[in-house]
């Protein structure tokens, strides 16, 4: 089976030092395609002024290796120009029945071009929908992106021959979006673990006493992730407990619509000695943080999947998560679930988990160690079975 895979995200974001969840998923797909026997992959990126450009397999392999080095922490952030030097366009190839696959976010224009090319060769398009959060919760997205996200999902549901989702939660969102309109076949493919196993992940310093109990929150700093709840709790605990208060480590880049969040991070005197911000920890540093944390905190208001919850559980790190459908689907019974607005409950949980002899933390630690992730082998086996008969 000949398959054209969208590497636009790799080309545009390959210079960054730290990934988002979708970046990690794309890398997992590229690793699979590079080694696949039953699939003959080609690679294309949608580039200015607005057309698809094919890249050689060697160019994609170089981009992928450079990205892995940056994510590992071996090298820092690169300039976009350093990525361009790996960019080697080649002649695009179309075979009869070619499959087109994207796990990124191509817009309506890019999808329209693929649709016309697919129709010429009898090909089929498959689009991975990670979530519809910007549409269902526009208050958490930049206003200028609202129309673009509406158009993107409308194009995906109208033009694709098959849709992939990471959870039942996302599948239900698609059903709500489409209403009475026909929907392409949907395959639910949960993600495996995308944080590569490091045999001896280095202990990541939290910037203070490394023996002091700390909690970890992972993800872009934006309103949907509910950092504000945690910051308010930590400010209060710092005032009440002083130097004895547990620390909070925030691992993630700064996003959007976060003025009040950043004001607290940068200007709150009470948080100065209990808060550590790590914007681009490498994969080994992130694993070290997860191994040492009293718990991963995931208080977000909405998710399509939430990879950090799965990654933390896979590391045997207890999780306290907001009680939303995606978290229950990913975490099963392993996390402690709390309403994302239950400040009293979150503070009680943090205080409890911070104690050295916490029975509650011991229970969720055992649950994390018993938790098992979805399998990438199953994911890609089901993907292949889904693509072939489209």
CATH architecture of the largest domain: 3-Layer(aba) Sandwich
Profile the largest sheet. 8 strands, mixed
Q: How many structurally independent domains?
A: 2
How many E strands? Answer: 14
CATH superfamily of the largest domain: Glycogen Phosphorylase B
- Treating each run of at least 4 consecutive H or I residues as one helix, how many helices? 16
> Percent range for helical residues?
40-55%
Overall structural class, as computed from helix and strand content, comes to: alpha/beta
In short:
With 390 residues, the protein is an alpha/beta fold. It folds into 2 domains: 2-192 and 375-387, 3-Layer(aba) Sandwich (Rossmann fold), CATH 3.40.50; 214-370, Glycogen Phosphorylase B (Rossmann fold, 3-Layer(aba) Sandwich). 44% of the residues lie in helices and 16% in strands.
Can you put this structure into words, describing what you see?
The chain is an alpha/beta fold and 390 residues long. It is built from 16 helices and 14 strands. The strands form three sheets. An eight-stranded mixed β-sheet has the order 4-3-2-1-5-6-7-8, sandwiched between helices. α5 (108-121) runs parallel beside α7 (146-159). The longest helix is centred in the N-terminal third of the chain and has 16 residues, at 57-72. It is globular. Residues 201-205 have low confidence and may be disordered.
